[in-house]
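JOB MANIFEST
job_type = single_chain_structure
chain_count = 1
residues = 350
[input]
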Amino acid sequence: MCWHWNRYKNQCKSLMLCLMMSPLLGGCYSFGVAVEYTKAYMSRRPVEEVQQDPKVSPAIKEKLETVDKIIAYAKKQGLHTQGAYRYFIADSKEVVSYLLEVAYPDRLESVTWWFPIIGSVPYKGFFSKVDRDEAAKPYYEEGYDVFLTGASAFSSLGWLEDPIYEPMLRDSFGSLCELFFHELTHRTLWVKNQVPFNEALATYMGYVLTLQYLDELKDTREKGAYLDEQTDRKLFLTWLTGLTNELKALYKNPPNSRDTLLAEKKKRLERFVHEEKPKFKLVDFVGKKEWNHARILANQLYAPDLERFSRAHHCLPQTDVNFFLTTLAERVKGASDPFKVLDDLCVAKI
């Protein structure tokens, strides 16, 4: 495929990089991901070219223009935007990637996988739903708790030129802003082996920067809709915390029989889903799918205590995002518990 070098040199370099990395990233799984990523990458088009194409819908063009403005704002705030989202990949799928998340059935603990660069992570991502579902089968057969879901975006943490996938553009305006601020935070600061911290930080930064950006635009309608969704998220966080605490209490003093333990776990899950479910205004974050340990732990990654981050952020002598992230990056180097570093910002000498 590299015969016409001028046209295909970037795609070929991407393929070679993926092929070189695949033995390091976990054998067949990573090789498959590398191949699928390369297929998508080769279909990418510069955003400028897409904007000028009369065959592309006005709605897509408008969203791409919106993303360009979001990235420009993120750059002003000090996020790492170089090489990000300059290309577009048309994709009819509802999600960008398909996720497999697995947990032990008798304790709140995720199964994790280790990869170079990013370290230990509690999920695997696939570009193919079929591949994801096939990978899940052994875990189902062995009795693990399994949660299958999709991701609307992913980040290469700055190692590659992350493209804009079409499914990323289907969110509301506020959610679109939050999505790109979230992913750009990953490119700006990623702490190896600390996925819960990384996702919590990116969620917080997505929230803060979205509100700042909507204020700058003076878009009260979109801000109101976004804040209504955040209210539902807070209700969900309270619900999720209550469920988690009940399960932790069960496992702290478990019954003698494992079968009894699993039966008690099932009772608590059913009660929370059917009797304790909040009255959401806009978004039903509990939904109708089965809840299990894998789903609980997956949602905990994206439902952090925002007040905890806000306290650390606003006790610094400067409250701009760049200063917060730079200070945090300096202090989490080599730290075994980045959350403790976060809490200690308020007592540290800056």
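[summary]
Residues 23 and 31 are 7 Å apart (CA to CA).
The longest helix spans residues 220-252.
exit_status = 0
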